[in-house]
Amino acid sequence: MMRSLVTHSRKESGFTLVELLVSLSLLVIMVALVNGSLRFGRRVWEVSDQIDRADNVAAFRNLLGRRLVETVPLVSSDDRGALTSVFQGTSDQLTFASPMSSRDGKPGGLFSVTLKLAPDAGAAARPLSLELKPLMGANVPPGQDGHAPVLVDNVMQLAIRYYGSPEQGGEPRWFDNWQRRSSLPSLVAVDVEFPPGDPRAWPPFTTELKLGSREQSRR
Asked: Which of 35, 79, 125, 205 has the smallest number of CB atoms closer than 10 Å to its CB?
């Protein structure tokens, strides 16, 4: 009788070695499963973020291409009466006039479109900005046009080139700038470089300006 009580008390006093080993094995398996789930979830978020950013680049390129195709050779005059084309392009900034229709409560009309890297002091990579400001036909007070700049974040470099005939005449060729000219280029090429390791890509981008091509064909 006494031996039975001792045996029973030992069983209730704690786990056996086999039970302890089984419990530790199950704990290790559970930790491995949880860690794997966390890694998988983190990877899903990273892939989702890359897709969103890639879609943003595609939407940006699409908007820029549509606006460039419809570029209007608009000319304005300064205080001295000198005529200056709204289309002004350098190797890292481009401003041109393009029509836009009203949509979602935003005004339509003729807009000044500016492509440039947004200023960000001390940053190696900056947002690529496409600014839209009404020129005429929008009938809205300045600063209330309802068009926020379209941005692509974290861009290292922007390079713009222009294809057309020299101002003094001659065969068409590529230029790094297109300023103080009365005519439009026939083609505009935009190259964008992202930081090393950035998964986004900017395929070759060259757009034909409809009215610029017509001017070149008449020469």
From this structure: 79
